[in-house]
Design brief:
single chain; 4-stranded mixed sheet; 50% helix; globular
């Protein structure tokens, strides 16, 4: 909670400081950011105090919006793990630098959650239906794959990062072209691995363009009958292990994101997260955190346990306003600047 507040303070202060020409964001250690602090949110939500989590996510979404509409360049150095909330505080930046150590994933459906913090905006704008694939399966992408699909804007070897940072801190301009030219001096185009899912774009577009989760899985299973492919089999297993309600919510959220701006996406995601924390229909988020993060038995008991037990009305409720007199929709701060990249990349 304090980290989000402090980051937001720093972003606001730096935007008004003429001495600050850009923001450089990097991790402290082997990860850029492995995700949000759900261990602080879930125990209280289990006890009925869902509004603590409400406030936590609200602050994260506002920070995401400020980053996406920031008037100064943000350089995110994604050296290491970039998962969940880590994607939310990096992808909005204009300059996203991946390395050979980068590992990106939105693994929320395996936790009984959904790709949030603006993910429905950025995932829906990846090539073809690659965003649906990444968001629904939680598949891990390396730095080369991040560059190929647009999650990263540059690729720099980790050994050259100190030199890049030294060059960036000497910059005396906020001109994006000048900053891009500096990063490009240290960049190169990595080769995609032979087994990379990015080479499976034809199958991904064929399967993940389907209207429902059931149709996506069925189409993948038909593909598996026609050809023996380990990637198809593992993709089917990832989907079948995920929370059924999370898959349905996530697909609809990403699809709606295709037609909405970043602000509308965050407002919608905030509604969903409040419903998830209230756990009126399903407690899958609590169960997923138990199985993956707490007990670590990796054997969650989802409820509802199957896709065919979930009606459209059940999914609809997650996208509706909360029936609580003290609750209101996410209020995003007024912003006077929307960078061109926020439209093209986010």
């Amino acid at each position: 909670m304090l980290q989000l507040s402090r980051l937001l303070e720093l972003f606001y202060a730096s935007e008004q400081d003429s001495n600050v020409k850009m923001i450089i964001l990097k991790g402290n250690g082997r990860a850029f950011c492995a995700g949000g602090d759900v261990t602080a949110v879930v125990p209280l939500a289990r006890q009925g105090n869902w509004k603590f989590g409400d406030n936590y996510f609200q602050e994260g979404y506002i920070l995401n919006y400020v980053m996406a509409t920031y008037s100064k360049p943000q350089v995110s150095i994604l050296n290491g793990i970039v998962m969940g909330g880590g994607a939310g505080v990096s992808v909005p930046g204009r300059f996203r630098v991946a390395t050979e150590k980068s590992v990106f994933a939105m693994p929320e459906t395996a936790l009984g959650f959904f790709p949030d913090i603006g993910a429905s905006y950025c995932l829906s704008r990846l090539p073809g239906f690659f965003g649906e694939y990444a968001g629904l399966t939680g598949a891990r992408l390396d730095g080369a794959e991040m560059l190929a699909c647009g999650l990263a804007a540059h690729f720099v070897s980790s050994a050259r990062l100190p030199l890049l940072e030294q060059a960036l801190v000497k910059v005396s301009t906020s001109d994006p072209d000048a900053i891009s030219a500096i990063i490009s001096r240290f960049s190169h185009a990595p080769k995609l691995k032979k087994e990379s899912p990015y080479h499976k774009m034809k199958i991904i577009n064929h399967c993940f363009s389907r209207r429902t989760i059931e149709e996506i899985i069925s189409t993948l299973e038909n593909e598996a009958l026609d050809k023996k492919d380990d990637w198809i089999s593992s993709t089917i297993q990832l989907l079948k292990k995920a929370s059924p309600i999370s898959l349905k919510i996530s697909l609809r959220s990403i699809r709606e994101g295709r037609l909405q701006g970043i602000g509308s996406c965050l407002i919608r995601e905030y509604r969903i997260v409040c419903h998830v924390l209230r756990a009126e229909f399903s407690k899958d988020y609590f169960e997923g955190c138990r199985a993956i993060l707490e007990d670590k038995d990796r054997n969650p008991k989802w409820e509802p346990s199957r896709l065919n037990l979930i009606r459209d009305d059940d999914v609809d409720r997650y996208f509706s306003k909360i029936d609580d007199e003290d609750w209101e929709d996410l209020k995003l701060p007024p912003r006077s600047y929307l960078p061109p990249h926020a439209i093209a990349k986010l």
